[in-house]
């Protein structure tokens, strides 16, 4: 299996939607509820709860076409099979809305917030490849720290959309702060 990681660009907008609408969630259609990775871009709870799947799709489309949604797509033999969403922590208002316990100094911190891997491609190292490249992209953008928010324990892959804690620890992240359900992990990108 040939895995290729590509930075999300306006030219890949169709692949992004192909992945989320046809590939990502056949094992759990309810997870394909229309988030389109807009959750962390919501400004408040009411906005998120009232947005339809169609509105999220349009928001994602506009963000991708204007190069404002940051992420990576993983391809297996030319087919999109994985996604990782990351950005400047200060540009993800949903973190403040849904995870206020992770807010603090956002200066020079890139946040890695979501992984989605198609079912038959899970546990094949794709998320690790996405994580490694996300850290590389954040470093290129000048961030000093990569930060993520894995849950302590997850009953299923679907609940583990922040990525498993063990993956982060194996990739050079360390625990920055322990919360009730989540752990804030950080990796320093420059010495």
Automatic annotation (TrEMBL):
Residues 3-190 form the N-acetyltransferase domain. PROSITE patterns: GNAT. GO terms for molecular function: acyltransferase activity, transferring groups other than amino-acyl groups. Pfam families: Acetyltransf_1. InterPro entries: Acyl_CoA_acyltransferase (IPR016181), GNAT_dom (IPR000182). The keyword Nucleotide-binding does not apply. It comes from the Bacteria. Keywords: Transferase. The keyword Transferase applies. This is N-acetyltransferase. It comes from Acidilutibacter cellobiosedens.
